[in-house]
Amino acid sequence: MAEARLMFCVGATKAGTSWLHRYISDHPECWMQPIKELHYFDAIDRNDWAYQRSVIEGRRAGLQADLAGASGPWADELRRQIAQMDRWLAVLASGREDLPAYLDYLTAGADGRLVADMTPAYSLLSQDRLSGMARLLPDVRFIYLMRDPVARLWSHVRMMAERRAKPGESLAERAKRILNRVITGKEPQIAERSDYRAALSKILAAVAPARRLVMFSEDLFSQAGVGRICAFLGISPVPARPDRRVFEGQAVPMTEFQRRRAGRWLAEQYDFVATTLGDVPPAWRANMEWA
């Protein structure tokens, strides 16, 4: 049996990772488990096994409820997903690092096809942890997607506003308060996902150039973009659906004042990426005038 190839997509949050996951899942040369974000390595570092189990158990309960009213191929698919979640829960149950069990879960049935763990939170891991991940198999690839910093931040803020909003509350008002909290240092979990400088510095140091792809999400949603991804991963390019959006969320316009304020707060990120990679897409340059 051929040895599987492993791809990690380590972020960034709200930069197209869910769209890429859907594309890879549909690709005939890839073998994907139904759980996109496994959070295995941050569970090791944070010792939060119980929390990760509770998340998967909640998703499993939802699938089990859906199964009660399903039939035919959809019911078969739900049973497959539930069985895979049971396998993953068994890996988490030990409450300790077990890399062979982790790899067995990812590669079972792959027969040499590409497998992937697409967890944006891995961008927060240490350089040493990322280096260890790069050595798990002979062929390990890393992808890091970056979206215009202001657009990424606002998408993240909107997502949190939708989660936190009370019934009847204005999402725009909730988003305004969250953005203010981010900029004033009161939302570190959002701020750290905006830190391209920290994430990119670790990835560039931990992963060999031939094994990493840093890409702007503005270039992803096209046949040329997925062609670049496929060439990097060693899989055949197949037609993409650039117009398909995944978890896009409810539209909440950003005011010009908010855009300028966010641009100034993110100035260091724009400068670092432009200096490190040599250029940025036009959408980035439009916001850099406020940075």
What is the gist of this entry?
Helices cover 54% and strands 8% of the residues.
Task: Note down, in words, how this protein is organized.
The protein is of the alpha/beta class. The protein has a single domain (5-31, 109-288), classed as Rossmann fold (3-Layer(aba) Sandwich). It has 14 helices and four strands. It has helices spanning 17-26, 40-46, 49-67, 72-93, 99-107, 127-134, 149-164, 171-183, 188-191, 196-206, 223-233, 256-265, 267-277, 282-288; strands at 5-9, 114-118, 140-146, 212-216. It has a four-stranded parallel beta sheet with strand order 2-1-3-4, sandwiched between helices. Helix 3 (49-67) runs antiparallel to helix 4 (72-93), helix 6 crosses helix 10 and helix 7 (149-164) crosses helix 8. The radius of gyration is 20 Å and the shape is globular.
Structure keywords:
291 residues; alpha/beta; Rossmann fold; 4-stranded parallel beta sheet
Query: Total domains, how many?
Result: 1
CATH level-3 fold name: Rossmann fold
The helix content, as a percent range, equals 40-55%
As residue ranges, the low-confidence spans are: none
Count of DSSP E strands?
A: 4
Largest sheet: 4 strands, parallel
Mean pLDDT metric: 93
Strand line-up in the sheet with most strands: 2-1-3-4
Structural class, by secondary structure, is alpha/beta
Helix count? 14
Q: CATH class, please?
A: Alpha Beta
Give the helices and strands, then pairings:
Layout: E1 5-9, H1 17-26, H2 40-46, H3 49-67, H4 72-93, H5 99-107, E2 114-118, H6 127-134, E3 140-146, H7 149-164, H8 171-183, H9 188-191, H10 196-206, E4 212-216, H11 223-233, H12 256-265, H13 267-277, H14 282-288
Parallel strand pairs: 1-2, 1-3, 3-4
